[in-house]
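SAMPLE LOG
Freezer: B-3
Tube label: C17
Construct: single chain, 118 aa
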Amino acid sequence: MVRMEREPESAPHLAFQNGIIQTTIDLRSYRLTAVQKTAYRYADRCTAILGASDQHLLPVTFLFPPSTVESAAREAVRQFFQELLDQELREQIGSETHAIRSLLLAHAFSKTDLIRRD
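STRUCTURE (predicted):
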């Protein structure tokens, strides 16, 4: 296992102060829907407050329970970003396959009689 002595230059600094970590998410990389779904999935670990976007940057404030230590909070935010990538890929696949899924559903229901006729 390789251990990094410092974070890469592109990694955001995640300062933990008074149970809060603040960062921004670039909406050119992630859809707002993906951010919202990820925030919902992490509601048991922290509260993610999404601010108003400024052009393409979305401010996010993570509020942690009072007993949370800094290392656990930073790890939760790191995992949040991993989940965010997963949710973004799901959104991308969903939009790319929407037409074929609609066609398959239409075909499947076209062979069933949804209305009972007497």
